[in-house]
Amino acid sequence: MTDLTAVFNTRIVALPLAGMFQQAMRSTGGTFALLLLFLIDQVLNLPGAYITAGRMLWTLARDDAVPFSGFVRRVDSKWRNPFNAQVICGVCVTILGAIYVGNATAFTAFVGCFTILTTWSYCAAILPHLLTRRRNVPRGPFWMSTWVAYIVSGTACAYILVFNVLYMFPYVYPVTVPLMNYACVMSGGLTIL
């Protein structure tokens, strides 16, 4: 890549990846070929991800871990699959797509908080285990000795805390409203929700 400004200002359907491919390949045909590989990857993987999300929602509903689990966990007798869970996932994906159509900044904030929320979920599993001195989890085949477990768990929690703060910093200075990192607002709002 030789010109970062040209990448961000590309006229190829406002897709920076296409601008990068165009600079790398220096031909329209090469750019098309690389974008076609990108499209094929999406076409092959997105249905599997969507079905996996529906099955995971169904599994959580079986264990009464979601609201309205009686409705969500039903297996459709005609289709013999968790149809309700798949429909709910479809509605959620559509709503998330509508966020992007309505406001790209809000969608970017939502996507940007993924790392923060994911690592918080790890910390939510590690920290109570650490604070209760490992009394509430039965020993398994990969049980660490006490001093190693405290070092590893403490380091993991400290790493999560420090890096989540760094992930919430603004992307550029001076900070403007469109370029602000709203991941902290989105993470707090989703945590409260």
Which descriptor suits the 3D outline? extended
Largest sheet: none
Uncertain segments are none
Supply the helix-strand structural class.
mainly alpha
In whole angstroms, the N-to-C terminal distance is: 41 Å
Overall residue-averaged pLDDT value: 88
Write down the Rg. 22 Å
Strand tally is 0
The SSE string, one letter per element, is: HHHHHHHHH
Strand content: under 5%
Number of helices: 9
- Tell me the helix content: 55-70%
Structure characterization notes:
By secondary structure, the chain is mainly alpha-helical. The protein has nine helices and no strands. The longest helix has 35 residues, at 28-62.
Short summary:
With 193 residues, this protein is mainly α.
Give structural attributes.
mainly alpha; 0% strand; 193 residues
Topology:
Elements: H1 4-8, H2 16-25, H3 28-62, H4 69-72, H5 83-102, H6 104-112, H7 114-131, H8 146-167, H9 183-192
Helix pairs in contact: 2-3, 3-5, 5-6, 6-9, 7-8
